[in-house]
Amino acid sequence: MSRPVVEFWFEFASTYSYLSVMRIERAAAAADVDIEWKPFLLGPVFLALGWNDSPFNIYPPKGRYMWRDLERLAEKEGLPFRRPSRFPRNGLLAARVALVGVEEGWVAPFARAVMTANFAEDREIGEEAVIVEILGTLGLPGAEVITRAQADANKLALRCQTERAAELGLFGAPSFRVGEELFWGNDRLEDALAWARRA
Amino acid sequence: MSRPVVEFWFEFASTYSYLSVMRIERAAAAADVDIEWKPFLLGPVFLALGWNDSPFNIYPPKGRYMWRDLERLAEKEGLPFRRPSRFPRNGLLAARVALVGVEEGWVAPFARAVMTANFAEDREIGEEAVIVEILGTLGLPGAEVITRAQADANKLALRCQTERAAELGLFGAPSFRVGEELFWGNDRLEDALAWARRA
């Protein structure tokens, strides 16, 4: 029998994706579930809903609440958190690199390092130099990986994955899929893992 | 020492308020926390954010997800659920009656009965006859309560409570407040209770 699988759809600019990226491998291991990492871009998904910015910026009461909620949740999880001086940051390059990481098996530590840079260290993850440095700390050849990430085929793969997200009915991140079943938000990670085990 | 208190802000048309109304008294009793019931109307709060309808209607992917999520959560909680044939229903009269119930000490069973009518029995809770019947099943004098609920002072009290919700930064329901701390969504009930105990 094959092991249960949860698809993990996340975006590097997304605050609640930070929480899930940091804890999903531990939670999945404890539940004996495999994770398929699905980096994508929220920008096009939000545009299709009529938002040209993060809803947390468009609707200030939601934004004020979210930053406080995130601070509380990070404390509860024992995660470092510093409110980024820019939000949302551009997650395009990081998402392209993450797709290479999915193929090569290092997406999880890469994603944790980028999320930590964005949400705990207030670093500019949209800049190539920052991504190259992160790759270096993971023992990966930064320049080579960037070249692979920026190749046309990989750019297209990310575009297709983002279109697929909208087709699947995703409207935010993180989202989890088990078969046809969709779970939205860091709060639903445990439910998604349980669903995969029972499916 | 006084017992810890959580303010519970809810709206009868709100799907996730259904889940919280049905479980909050049991959860609060287990945590040794008192609940202050704060019925209010989401309509004016949403209008201030630019929404003239429920966001679940305005953004179809969010709506599709919400109905499935609610179905799953109701099953998990062992709650009956039938998708209402009209959404959102008008919760104005029920909210006015609930304010009377807060004064007279029967708001909790009344709220559970109205929520069950809306989200498990597909009944038209905006109609006076339905509310009168629900009051009757609770052993309350329906016509008298309606008269009190529709008195100018009570109407004004609900209007003020709704304006207060927006002032406090609420943007959805259910919401919970502990001192100045805001928690949004049925998923945060346990966190709000824990915060009240530690505060």
Question: For this entry, what is the oligomeric state of its chains?
Answer: homodimer
Tell me what the CATH architecture of chain A is. Answer: 3-Layer(aba) Sandwich
Main sheet record of chain A: 4 strands, mixed
Q: How many independent structural domains of chain A?
A: 1
Low-confidence spans of chain A? none
Number of strands of chain A: 4
Strand order of the largest sheet of chain A: 2-1-3-4
End-to-end distance of chain A = 12 Å
Overall, the morphology of chain A is: globular
Structural class of chain A: alpha+beta
> Could you tell me the strand content of chain A as a percent range?
5-15%
Q: Which pair of chains forms the biggest interface, and how many residues does each contribute? A: A-B, 21 and 21 residues
The helix content of chain A, as a percent range, equals 55-70%
Query: Looking at CATH, which topology of chain A would you report?
Result: Glutaredoxin
Keywords (chains A, B): Isomerase
Organism (chains A, B): Thauera phenylacetica B4P
GO molecular function (chains A, B): 2-hydroxychromene-2-carboxylate isomerase activity; glutathione peroxidase activity; glutathione transferase activity
Family (chains A, B): Belongs to the GST superfamily. NadH family.
